[in-house]
Design a protein that fits this description.
Largest sheet: none
Structural class: mainly alpha
Helix content: over 70%
Number of helices: 4
Shape: globular
Distance between the termini: 30 Å
C-alpha cells in the first residue's frame, strides 16, 4: 500500500504525519508477517488476497494511529483477516510441496 492510499483512508491531508504513517506502514507489514507467516511479497496474482492484506494493514495502522497510548483490545475483524491470510499462506506451502 502506498502512503497516499493510507492518508486517504485515514483522512489525513497534511504532510506533517508522513513520517509517522510511513513508519506504521512498515510496522504493519511486520505485524502481519509475525501473526500469519505471510509477507506482502508472497501474494502473487491474487487481487482478493492483496486487498485483504491491505485491509489488515489499514486496521492495524488505524488502531495505532487513532488510539495512541490507549490500552489495546482485540479486534475481531482483524483476527478474521489474519486467519484468512494464514490460510492463503498455507495454500502456498502446499503448492510448493
Amino acid at each position: 500500500m502506498e502512503l497516499d492510499e493510507l492518508k486517504e483512508w485515514l483522512r489525513v491531508d497534511e504532510e506533517d504525519e508522513d513520517k509517522t504513517l510511513s513508519s506504521l506502514l512498515l510496522v504493519s507489514k511486520s505485524i502481519i508477517k509475525l501473526g500469519t507467516g505471510l509477507a506482502q511479497e508472497d501474494i502473487v496474482d491474487d487481487e482478493a488476497t492483496a486487498e485483504l492484506y491491505k485491509l489488515a494493514q489499514k486496521i492495524i495502522i488505524t488502531n495505532f494511529y487513532e488510539d495512541r497510548g490507549a490500552p489495546g483490545k482485540e479486534n475481531v475483524g482483524l483476527t478474521s483477516l489474519y486467519m484468512q491470510l494464514e490460510v492463503y499462506k498455507m495454500s502456498l506451502k502446499s503448492v510448493m510441496l
